[in-house]
Amino acid sequence: MTTSKTIARLMGPVLLAMGLGMVIENDTMRELTQEFLSNRGLIYLAGILTLLAGLAIVNAHNLWTDDWRVIITVFGWLAIVGGLFRILLPGQVQALGTGLTGNIPAMVIGGLAVLILGGVLSYYGYEHLWQEKLKRRAAAARSASTASARPRKRSRRK
Question: Whole-prediction pTM value?
Answer without folding.
Answer: 0.79
